[in-house]
Each structure stands twice: as structure tokens, then as C-alpha cells.
Amino acid sequence: MHSTTSSLPTTDVVLIGAGIMSATLGLMLKELDPTLTITIFERLDVAAAESSDAWNNAGTGHSAFCELNYTPERPDGSIDISKALSIAEQFEQSKQFWAFLTEKYDVKEIQRFINHIPHMSFVMGRENVEFLRKRHAALTASALFKGMKFSEDQAEIADWMPLVMDGRDPDQTVAATRMDLGTDVNFGSLTRGMFYLLQEKPGVTLHFHHEVDKLHHNADGSWRVKTENLQNGQETETRARFVFIGAGGGSLPLLEKSHIPEAAGYGGFPVSGQWLRCVNPAVIARHDAKVYGKASVGSPPMSVPHLDTRVIDGEKQLLFGPYAGFSTKFLKTGSYFDLPASIQFGNVKPMIMAGLKNLSLTKYLIQQVRQSPNDRLAALREYLPEAQAQDWELAIAGQRVQVIKKDKKQGGVLEFGTEVVTAADGTIAALLGASPGASTAVSIMLGLVQRCFPAQSATPEWQARFREMVPTFGHTLADEPELVNQTRTRTSTLLDLVTPEQLGV
Ligand SMILES: Cc1cc2nc3c(=O)[nH]c(=O)nc-3n(C[C@H](O)[C@H](O)[C@H](O)COP(=O)(O)OP(=O)(O)OC[C@H]3O[C@@H](n4cnc5c(N)ncnc54)[C@H](O)[C@@H]3O)c2cc1C
């Protein structure tokens, strides 16, 4: 049912994908310049149905309070907290932007997406306990981590996380940290709320069922974006001055289609995930924390086991996982041809080299894929010794595509973070990778805007608007303890941050 290509009106900005990244960039750009026209294309029938959906991610407001992989131990035994400081600061920027939105726009769609859930780390064994003690000492020297508690006392830990301590050997060496300021975020409802706001603005059009399949760079620097309407096969073309590829797992194939030199050598490695979701309300009621453990040796950072209290659509939930898996799809709703189709002359070497350097990951994924329900229960019982199989059901999480890139020394490396790839002329940018992800969307977009709109960003008008959206913009929170207190007090009030008990769930 193919018809001829029609043209949509020329637009200033095209956003590809209706996930949290496009939502954040779109709103930020409209605040900076309300006259901008923005066209958004989304292949599905709703916003935030891939990684940004609440059930597809862990909903942790990543602040480095509990994620042990953000504080690696150096060879001399000291703890490197630089990444933790940066992630904590980035999450404070996100909260400020969300607080700005809730203060400026009184929209019910954007309320109650964030709640206080204490963030805890839990470790077993003498070596890990020593690591946690040193980590706690290093972090609490910074105002960003003030208030974090450390305990080796089984009774106190049982008070913090009763399910984790019930039935545990009283002689086992364990330790935990607790940070009450931790949060759980429903990124799906936040994203849908942000698109609601965006669509209300003049000059913004959102097209669902529209899959972008070609990108062409015109001689005048603008872009021709070709889409197919997946409902009727109609093809359209849109001309844009700036394109953001915010297609989550679908970003890599589109970046390749842009043919910008900066895209050369990038590849992607998909990792799927599964959770155990608790279905027993009595068990759910007994846990009020996000408890992160330590990834076992050789396993990738995204496999860190965690037991998460969530608040989704007003209901308290409990998840354990993620269990990793392997699928050649780049999106949960993608195609098994995604991975093979992404392999090109320019990235085949980095992909092979990264594969050879990461054989332990391959081994880990094979072992994870082969897990039986009993294996999964055994992994859960390391954290919940008294867990019962009938209280938990398997659920499929979102798909992540880890970044592979060229490396002079090693030929190719596998990265576990996010990466923004920008054309030299600033007319197109793509976001690859998935971690720390949605929590750092605001800081990622502040950086992207300054890189792609350098002249406007330097003007006093845009600088003032950056500070209006994110009052600590231009500051380094780790160096300004007073500002940490100020911003946390302000965002807590504006976001009406409460605990699930206060919410009555
Ligand atoms: C298992 C798991 C756990 C996670 N846990 C956390 C966490 O606890 N905290 C946290 O902060 N982050 C977490 N993340 C990461 C976070 O979910 C992602 O970083 C974030 O949601 C990515 O947003 P996005 O907008 O880039 O992509 P997405 O939300 O995936 O949106 C991309 C959109 O683009 C659309 N699209 C794709 N291709 C095309 C095309 N060709 N044309 C048109 N549309 C297209 C898709 O349909 C989709 O709607 C987790 C991710 C996973 C998978």
C-alpha cells in the first residue's frame, strides 16, 4: 500500500523518538526560544513505551547513593568517588528542571512521578564490608552524601531491610549503608507529562506511528528526514535545521544513516533484561528501600542485583533483578535483524575487537540466558533468604544497547555509559547507550544544547534561562555545601517529595 512521498512543513527542530531524552530536549529548547518549531516522530502509538516506561527500567533516581559500581576501588585500595560526585550532581540538576516545570506549569499529568525511597547498599563477606566502609568514609566527606549511614549491626540492618535479613545466618559478615534522600522515579509518567506540556505549545507537532528511515544532509546544512507512517505506508519528508536522534536502542542505525564522519566506528551490543516482580502484597508491604548489591566478579555493571521498592501509578511494587539476557533486537519492539543490520565496514573491526576483549561478558550472558526458574530463585535468595517461588513472577525489562567504539590502542572498546555523538557543524546529534540514563537526561541535554547551539547559548538571554530552569547551572555542587542544602530543600518542597507511607501506599 505505497503512495508517493509527501512533504511536511519545514521545521526548526526534528526530534526522533518520544522517550525522556527527546521530551527533555524539546521542552528545554522551547523554554530557551519559544518561537522554535519542533516536529517529533515516534514509531509507536504512545510516548515512553520503550526504555522510559516505568516497567521497563528500575526507576532509580541515580544519585550514586547506593550503586557500588560508581565508586571503583583503585589498585592502592582507596576509593575513586569522582564518578559518584558527578552523577549525584547531575541528578540534582534533573530534580531542579522537574521542579521548574511543576512550579511553572500546574499540570496533573506531571505530578507524583517521584517519591522518597531510601537508597541502601548491602554487601556480604569481609572484603566487601571493608570496601563499603571505605566507600562510606570517602563519600560522606562530601556534602552531596551527608547523612549516609553505615552499619555492620545485623539488628540495625534488619530494621532497615527486614526481608533481606529474615532467615539469614546470624554469623554472616554483612554491612549496609542507608541514604534517606534516595528517590524512585516513574520516568514513563514524567515523560508522558512532558510531552503533554510540549504539545500544548505553539509550533510543536507530534506524529505517532511514524518511523524515521532515512536522513539526508542538504548542501545548505539542513536535513531531510524521511518517515513512513506505519499505519498506512505513506512516506513523508520533512526539512529541519537541527535533528536530534533520541531513538533509544534505535539511535545507532539512524546515526549510521546520517553518514556524518563522527559516526564512523560506532557499534552497538544489545543486552536484554528480566525482573522478578513480587505478586504477594504482604511481602511488598514489608520492604521500603532500593537495595543495591555488588555485581559478581566478571559481570557487567548493569547486572548489579537490586531489590527495588517502586511506586507505579499510585501502587507500591517490588522488583528484583535484573537478570541479563541476549537478543539481537535493539528495541523491545524491534527486529531480530537489528544487530546484523548495524554491522558495517566501518565498525566491524571495533565490534570484533570489543567482543574479543569482553569474552567474560559473553560467558556471563550465556550463563544468564540458560538460567532456569530455580537458578533465578537461588539468586533472589542470596538477597531474600526466605523468598518463595509463588510470590514472584518473571517480567521482561527494556532493551539496552551498549556502545562499542573505535579505540586506537585496543581496536574497539565496549562502554557502559551514554555517549552523545554530534556533527562538527552542530546540525545533528544522537544519544547512544543507556546508563546512568534517564536520571541524567537534564545534564546531558544542557551539554548538548551548548554544543549544538553555541552562539545562542552564550547570549545573556539563554544564560539567564539556563539558570531559571536549573538554578545551580554553572556551579559545582561538590564545592559548595551550602548550595547543596539550598537546592535539596527547594526541590523537595516543589516536587512535594514524600515517602510511600505518607502517600498511603
Ligand atoms: C533494564 C533497564 C533498567 C534501567 N534502569 C534505570 C534506572 O533505574 N534509572 C535511570 O535513570 N535509568 C535507567 N535505565 C535507562 C533509561 O531507561 C534510559 O536511559 C532512558 O529511558 C532512555 O530514554 P530515551 O529517550 O533515550 O529512549 P527510549 O525511552 O527508549 O525512547 C526512544 C523512542 O524512540 C522510538 N524510536 C526508535 N526508533 C525510531 C525510529 N526509527 N523512528 C521513530 N521513533 C523511533 C522508540 O519507539 C522509543 O519510543 C534503565 C534501562 C533499562 C533497559
Automatic annotation (TrEMBL):
Source organism of the structure: Hymenobacter psychrophilus
Lineage: Bacteria, Pseudomonadati, Bacteroidota, Cytophagia, Cytophagales
Pfam families: Mqo
Entry's Gene Ontology molecular function annotations: (S)-2-hydroxyglutarate dehydrogenase activity; L-malate dehydrogenase (quinone) activity
Name of the encoding gene: mqo
UniProt GO BP: tricarboxylic acid cycle
Name of protein: Probable malate:quinone oxidoreductase
EC class name: oxidoreductase
E.C. no: 1.1.5.4
Entry-linked PANTHER family: L-2-HYDROXYGLUTARATE DEHYDROGENASE, MITOCHONDRIAL
